[in-house]
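Researcher: Go.
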Amino acid sequence: MTPNFWRTVDSFGTAGVAALAWRLRLGAEYTATRAFLRRSSHHAALVPDPDDPRRWLHVYPDSAHGHVAISDESPPHREPLPLKAEDVCELTVDVNRLRPQLANAFAFVAATEATTAARDVHQLGIAQPTKGRAVPVLIYLPCGLPTDRAQLLRALSELPPSVLYVPTHRWQTPDAFKLANNRSIAIESLADRLAETLPVAATLSAPDEPGSSAARAKLRPLLRVQTGWRWEDVRIRLTIRATMIASHGTERGEHRFASAEKGESIRHFPRLFKMLIEISFAGHWQNPAPTTRDYEKVSKSFQRLRQTIEKLIPIPSEAFVRDGNRWRPRFQIQLDEEMETVTRRYRSMKNSSDHADAEEAE
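Model: Structure:
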């Protein structure tokens, strides 16, 4: 990837442009950068004139050559141009192929796949300058429409604190910087970063988090995530002190859930911690039926649990996978010996009480 590649992306947008246009614009770089482009299912309706790229030609089917490009000027400024099938296939940027390359170049942790963060904005991974701090790494790719600038400003007003890459510095306007500063978003131009004479690979300058130091410390990452980490290799152990101990290889960290007012008994454990205990026994979480009275309350609590786990262990993918109406953890979870003994005793007493209540109701 070069500054010229990103200037071309900025010019063409993501709507899909003829391969001939990419080849003419990128020149000798086309072969190396073709891997970062994906082919659409359509043929291009326009191609640039190879002899005068400022002029565009209309593409039509042709029985002799497959396709032919014709000038729409009167009289035509040139003879019809025979084209190969590969010239008229539409190409656009492939965010998922760019993701690991950008992660290697700029020293952030790549996600297993790019995900949508806002319209035209994709999350590529996370930057974690310290163990206790992580922010999303995002990229904005314009569509090539007159509304692109308005869409970027709208996204900046909604995105969380993050590092946002844009193709070129033309998106780094005063309005964009003002919104970004209010949201603690660092905007970086890919073309400018790649044009620097210093080595490209460097840890991102993650923006400062807003709010008080107490608020920032509320949910800090437990582990310093590294490239290639998977949720399947994360182990979580729960203790009688309402503590979650997380580990991945030699990395280890722990988080104490809010202390219960009435002591460390399972009945008074925080709601999210009790949900983790249930998941450790059942192997999954299942919300109540949508028609029940507690559905909204419980489903919101589980959503908060998912967000909490993903903030504490910022692997850039989802910690739970949905299986029908169940949510299965992708990580391993277990209770320590003391916690398991107390939990089994509590569950046994609760089941006995529920059974007695049922018999009395009969």
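Model: The longest helix spans residues 337-361.
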